[in-house]
Write a structure and sequence with these properties.
By secondary structure, the chain is α/β, with parallel strands linked by helices. The protein is about 45% helix and about 15% strand.
Amino acid sequence: MELGLYTFGDVDPNAPDKGREGERRLRELIEEIELADQVGLDVFGLGEHHRPDYAVSAPAVILAAAAARTSRIRLTSAVTVLSSEDPVRVFQQFSTLDLLSGGRAEMMAGRGSFIESFPLFGQSLDDYDDLFSEKLDLLIHLREQAVITWSGTMRSAIHGRGVYPRPLQDPLPLWIAVGGTPQSVARAGALGLPMALAIIGGEPARFAPLFELYREAARRAGQEPSRLKTSVNVHGFIADSTQAAADQFYGPQAEVMNRIGRERGWGPTSRAQFDQAISPRGNLFLGDPDMVAEKIIRHAKLFRNDRFLLQMAIGLMPHAQIMRGIELYGTKVAPLVRAALAESAEAPVAAQ
């Protein structure tokens, strides 16, 4: 199983000098990706947002900068808000990233968890579903052939035009990010595309049926099982002790969740809710290395996922704490998880 990180590049939305604040966070972010590569993590993802509290609106640009400072880690969006993007430009950007990184680029397409990009780029929320479906279809075609003829209803048609550069990987990896909607899960399976499922609330075990739905939809569509991959994307944090992890993570994470909650009409979060979420059955993968590794292993047996991505840098976390968390993830958690899963895979099957 691949182990990695993702983040949105949180910044202080009230900073008086937004340029200076953005420069600081992006500089730190490149250092975090570089460290993740050095300690042996497999993937780093950046999520696209168009809000004052996040610095990442152009994931491919930042990932290209990280490509020059890394050698093996895979670099992906998490996610690209495809509904408000031009699929041709998305493909060109990530093809370029693939060439710069020596074949380490991936695209993760989704609808996004916020809606600011729709009015910003002249899209109507009334077309929310149609935009994603049609643009996903175009992006799939772009991966399959250099010269494309395509038509739809949401953008102008393409008649025998070449789309360049072509990526080093053929095809350029494309994941579909979903938030738990069964229809989205089934679509990913029917298309035979890898699926990343975000679990940021509730008991993770409740999401297990969605992984089975994905595999069943793929089977019914006649998709090749070897093409099917799944990722679990969650929140959490790693520190030298579970108490330190909780104390360091709670304040910044609660501030973010309460800020978003005020926008969406959620009630305020509390430390009691937080403590429940870090329990063995909770949604936060937080604690010391042993505790986090055990939770990843236990859920891997339940989900049979191929990838696990952890969002540690949430809110205004101090850079030094994030760097220590990444170090522990790569040097302590990852070896424990890999050893346990390798042992499980090699264990003989009991006689029936």
